[in-house]
Fold F-box domain-containing protein.
Amino acid sequence: NSKCILRKYKMAHEILKKLPEDVIIYILLRLPVKSLILFTCISKTWYILIRSSTFINLHLNNSKTAKEEFIIFKRSLQVDPFQHKTTLSFLFGDDLKPVIPDLDVPYLESTFVNDYDQFIGPCHGLVALISMMNTVLFNPATRNYRLLPRFPSDSPQGFRCSMMVLGLDLTQLQMTTRDPYSSEQKVEVYDMITDFWRELDNIDQDMPRIYWAPSSMVFYKSACYWLAIGSKDKMIILYFDMGTEIFNTINLPHTCNSYNGPHYGLVVLRDSITMLRYPNPNPEYDPAQDLMQIWMMKEYGVYDSWMKIYTVRPLLIESPLLIWKDCVMLCESREGSLISYDLKLDKIQEFNLQGCPTSMRAICYKESMIQIPCESKDNAQVQYF
């Protein structure tokens, strides 16, 4: 029980405090977040140490091995004919067994399934879940979450949120809105420190439009990347740098930039931006006539560095979700189940994890002690599962 566990941690504290401070820190850096949270209850000194930004960053940077990664799997489940809920599963190992019970995410219940819900991160241990109505910021390790304020309701007439963009760093969140029926575009930025929205200036009114697909966006090294449709219906990558707050584009390989026909996805593989070209899931297309291709950009931003690293036999998938451990591709099947495909062994495995069609998302996650920033008194408070 909890009293017995706390007693054991107090005994451990008595032993550890006899050691030199640098040795104590060395040991603490190797403990999981659950243990560190318990140690903050032992003494004020340890609470201050473990909650310090220096220790939190050291702990995050110390967790670099693939063995410490697990997968957070998001899906929508139908509760009744008029209600859906968003559920998170926490999976680990080659057989993707759950490590903790599933969580139902507050504020993300709806009367419909939104194909364009986003699940973004992690960045410094934080992830964000976004629906057309709400955005929930969440630390899976500490189990705290917060409903973020909605973007301003006084946008000019004719604007609606059709391109939802969320990027995470230590200081801010960005969200983009766009009116698809007008040539004018508007970008709003939500700053996590000030807890307010502001509009960005000098936005290119010819910015490409987002290519909506379950795997069309990825967050990587303080930037958000989307597949987008440029001039003459050519597929490109649009990205937004969080530091400079500037949009830019990257061209795709010339054999993989046709908007009509195949579908596309973005993942991060071997610390590089990677593009997946896969058969259109529409029944009128024959997947046997089109193989999946996986292209990696070996040198960041350099067009000539695109390299095709895999050609995959036809797979009946709705969409790819991520590539784990450099060779295991997780996908949503046409039947609405989670499946994996081993790129090296040419092996398919199906898991007993289902969801509403097109609602599945997945990210790799490493634990962090980082706290969700304090909010203003007028907005939702940080809560705990």
